[in-house]
Amino acid sequence: KYLLIFDFDETIINENSDDSIVRAAPGQALPEHIRQTFREGFYNEYMQRVLAYMGDQGVKMGDFKTVYENIPLSPGMPDLFQFLSKNHELFEIILISDANMFGIESNLRAAGFYSLFRKIFSNPSGFDKRGYFTLGPYHSHKCLDCPANMCKRKILTEYLAERAQEEVEFERVFYVGDGANDFCPSVTLTSADVAFPRKGYPMHRMTQEMEKKQPGAFQATVVPWESAAEVARYLQEVLKK
């Protein structure tokens, strides 16, 4: 069995869902005083303030849901998901995302692919008594390269350990992502594994930089993609072998 890991923002979907929900805000924009509070590495806390502002403006659950449901999938992603549906017994599929549970579930259910995923790891979110959309951090960690609320390497390492305890060993691991926070877990992949960074995005640039600075240090095979159909084709070849 193979383990296949997906990121969500700008990987499964063709946008950053945190930016997308601003479409539900008055005038489809955020006031400058909110935007100015953003600090590198503390995006989750920033989004908590954005959501509180939107709650104050009367943006409701249904408004958010509509936005999430209408975010387009990335090029070729439906093809890849169709392929995975057909070969479901060969792949264990998980999603690790710094977005939020409500948004991811809304989008994947609307697209019809929610059931593909064995497990989704993302920031907890929901609606409080006032109907405000609330967001929390996923966990805390000691990684210096990742945002304060989530290290995907820690999540992946713990998942593999947990599955090993349940006597599930994976022949190979495949990782599909785009961001700097996807580079961190992909560094732990072995030479049997494959990293699929989205072409021209931070994860792709970081794998190239690492290869230049420390040839051979990044062990996984790197297969950049512009359309997820290319990922499907690669996996098809793997199944033929």
UniProtKB/TrEMBL annotation:
<protein>
    <recommendedName>
        <fullName>Phosphoethanolamine/phosphocholine phosphatase</fullName>
        <ecNumber>3.1.3.75</ecNumber>
    </recommendedName>
</protein>
<dbReference type="GO" id="GO:1903561">
    <property type="term" value="C:extracellular vesicle"/>
</dbReference>
<dbReference type="InterPro" id="IPR016965">
    <property type="entry name" value="Pase_PHOSPHO-typ"/>
</dbReference>
<comment type="similarity">
    <text>Belongs to the HAD-like hydrolase superfamily. PHOSPHO family.</text>
</comment>
<feature type="active site" description="Nucleophile">
    <location>
        <position position="7"/>
    </location>
</feature>
<dbReference type="GO" id="GO:0030500">
    <property type="term" value="P:regulation of bone mineralization"/>
</dbReference>
<feature type="binding site">
    <location>
        <position position="18"/>
    </location>
    <ligand>
        <name>substrate</name>
    </ligand>
</feature>
<dbReference type="Pfam" id="PF06888">
    <property type="entry name" value="Put_Phosphatase"/>
</dbReference>
<feature type="binding site">
    <location>
        <position position="178"/>
    </location>
    <ligand>
        <name>Mg(2+)</name>
    </ligand>
</feature>
<dbReference type="GO" id="GO:0016791">
    <property type="term" value="F:phosphatase activity"/>
</dbReference>
<dbReference type="InterPro" id="IPR006384">
    <property type="entry name" value="HAD_hydro_PyrdxlP_Pase-like"/>
</dbReference>
<keyword id="KW-0495">Mineral balance</keyword>
<keyword id="KW-0378">Hydrolase</keyword>
<feature type="binding site">
    <location>
        <position position="9"/>
    </location>
    <ligand>
        <name>Mg(2+)</name>
    </ligand>
</feature>
<dbReference type="InterPro" id="IPR023214">
    <property type="entry name" value="HAD_sf"/>
</dbReference>
<dbReference type="GO" id="GO:0046872">
    <property type="term" value="F:metal ion binding"/>
</dbReference>
<feature type="binding site">
    <location>
        <position position="98"/>
    </location>
    <ligand>
        <name>substrate</name>
    </ligand>
</feature>
<dbReference type="GO" id="GO:0035630">
    <property type="term" value="P:bone mineralization involved in bone maturation"/>
</dbReference>
<keyword id="KW-0460">Magnesium</keyword>
<dbReference type="InterPro" id="IPR036412">
    <property type="entry name" value="HAD-like_sf"/>
</dbReference>
<feature type="active site" description="Proton donor">
    <location>
        <position position="9"/>
    </location>
</feature>
<feature type="binding site">
    <location>
        <position position="7"/>
    </location>
    <ligand>
        <name>Mg(2+)</name>
    </ligand>
</feature>
<keyword id="KW-0479">Metal-binding</keyword>
